[in-house]
């Protein structure tokens, strides 16, 4: 026996619930932006934890609040049952990128061994942690490394990036400076350094706020000069290994 009226009523209730849910999220967004006095919210999402709402800011920060925005929580949310750091897992998801969309022609390419495992890094030539990473990467095997020159520390960083990009051998110029402190020769007049500006714009778009920032082939982000063993593990996992 069919009950078209009941089905119609259920459909109406579900639609109404969806509209109400969207209205709640829009209200939370409006009130958070009112508190921050800026259109700073990228997304609002209700969580299954105590009526909390997840607030993702355009800066990449993640906060929590209630339906009335009577408070803001800036910290980690832990699932007491699973002991999982919900905030950490969510941030990893939010910071993930589509590796295939990276303009690899704007990066310095180094192939080691068979080159099967791939990473991309955003680095400033005057970044101390980047120099430490560069030395560690000398021991990396069977990998292709794409280095995006990302000068964000000083005008000198921009000049050095352009000089390295314009070198006849970019790989040698980069490694000589980063591992041995050999200053790159000045760029020849007329050399096209637009890739550097494009890298800065790209980094800002994907929220690269510090150097080095590494992306594995599966799009996961590794901020900072991670230990080589950690990087090796992440690369192998991204390549489909264990």
Q: Can you give me a brief rundown of this structure?
A:
The chain has helices at residues 4-36, 86-94, 128-137, 155-165, 170-180, 194-205, 228-238; strands at residues 41-46, 53-57, 62-65, 72-73, 108-112, 117-123, 143-149, 213-216, 221-223. The protein is an alpha+beta fold and 242 residues long.
Describe the protein.
The chain folds into two domains: 4-94, Disulphide bond isomerase, DsbC/G, N-terminal (Nuclear Transport Factor 2, Chain: A), CATH 3.10.450; 99-238, Glutaredoxin. The protein contains seven helices and nine strands. The chain has helices at 4-36, 86-94, 128-137, 155-165, 170-180, 194-205, 228-238; strands at residues 41-46, 53-57, 62-65, 72-73, 108-112, 117-123, 143-149, 213-216, 221-223. The strands form two sheets. It has a five-stranded mixed sheet. Strands 1-2-3-4 form a four-stranded antiparallel sheet, with helices on one face. Strand 3 and strand 4 (72-73) form a beta hairpin. The radius of gyration is 23 Å and the shape is globular. The model is unreliable at 9-20 (pLDDT under 50).
Describe how the helices and strands are arranged.
Blueprint: H1 4-36, E1 41-46, E2 53-57, E3 62-65, E4 72-73, H2 86-94, E5 108-112, E6 117-123, H3 128-137, E7 143-149, H4 155-165, H5 170-180, H6 194-205, E8 213-216, E9 221-223, H7 228-238
